[in-house]
Amino acid sequence: MNVLELARPDILALEAYSSARAEGGGETVLLNANESPWPPHGAEHPWNRYPEPQPAELIARLAGLHGVAPENVFVGRGSGEGIDLLVRGFCRAGRDAILTSPPTFGLYAVCARVQGADVVEAPLGADFGLDVDALLAAVTPAVKLVFVCAPNNPVGTGVARDDILRLADALVGRALVVVDEAYVEFAGSGVDAASVATYVGEVENLVVLRTLSKAWALAGARIGAVLADARVIGLLHKLMAPYPLPAPCVEVALAAMSAEGCRAMRQHVEVTVTERERMRRALEGLSWVREVLPSQANFLTVRMQDPEAALTALRAAGIAVRDVRRYPRLDDALRITIGTPGENGRVLDVLRAVSPVRNCAVNKTLAEPRA
Ligand SMILES: *Cc1c(COP(=O)(O)O)cnc(C)c1O
Predict the structure, then answer these.
(1) In Å, how far from its chain's centre is CA 360?
(2) What is the pTM of this model?
(3) How far is the CA of 298 from the centre of ligand 1 (A)?
(4) Spatial distance between the Cα atoms of 24 and 44, rounded to a whole number of angstroms
(5) In this structure, which residue's CA is closest to atom 15 in ligand 1?
(6) 274-287: per-residue pLDDT in tens?
(7) Among 20, 125, 218, 370, which residue is least crowded by beta carbons within 10 Å?
(8) Do 247 and 39 form a contact (C-beta atoms < 8 A)?
(9) Helix, strand, or coil here: 15?
(10) Helix axis angle, 247-256 relative to 56-66, nearest 10°?
(11) Closest residue (by CA) to atom 3 of ligand 1?
């Protein structure tokens, strides 16, 4: 079966917008896009020109990094744009659906609802791990995309590669499995140890989302990649904005992914993972912390007796953490990103001094008489 049989027929039939830059053929005098012939004031770069719609050098670099062919790579403004384009390409409004495992990244459902697609849910297992059988049982003919956040956000649980491959295999011809690897560099034993990117192309319905926003420290540049079967990438080309990636952002990204940049990234990932485990031990030592949830990502989600008090104390100290209490099964939790060792130390100082130690030590004794 052709994986595109899952796509929206009207998009398959659509003739894509053809930009001037895409139609060019290596000419040196460019009078086809109504650009200024002069570079902008104060810049040496040719930013008077429209950028490549899909910058070849960036695509080649990302393909090399992730072990896929360039034809398997789409680059957009963050992986968020990839999520949006996939939903738009595969879900017919009012008819199709996506499948997610809450608690998980909220953007999947938002993109689906904007598109008028339904959101089917198969919750994560008791330990916040992926429940493949529950997902498979929840797949209906309407479900075109199954989103797997691996490691998950807002709980940093990892997902075993075999679970993802079993899910994808079982859904060939029925749905795409979209694996969001935003945090995968922080998982497993090396920056790419836990990724399923190398299976892209081999498993036709497997799609992997990667981003430069987290481990690569480029959230401000807005660059993310969709790795998928070449036919899926072709479909995304039809849907994309004419020139999604600003040229300055592409330059910054290429510099960050140089050999030296890779070393810096790995070193920061290593520090982050070490700090994550230090923070885990320290937080587990606080009497009013109920549970530090397992994390393979660059954050810890912490269930506590009085999250409001912790949030207030952190805010008063000028420290922002994420209130994740609106998510199912996390109504007593905060999500704390791992910062520099100094920043993490400040978080611990504030939390050690926070009043729940006194108030909640009492509550805890009342709630759990065995203590
Ligand atoms: C941060 C994050 C992303 C990254 O989004 P970008 O648009 O690439 O910045 C993607 N998925 C999840 C689950 C995230 O937490």
Answers:
(1) 35
(2) 0.94
(3) 12
(4) 23
(5) 153
(6) 999 999 999 999 99
(7) 370
(8) no
(9) coil
(10) 30
(11) 182
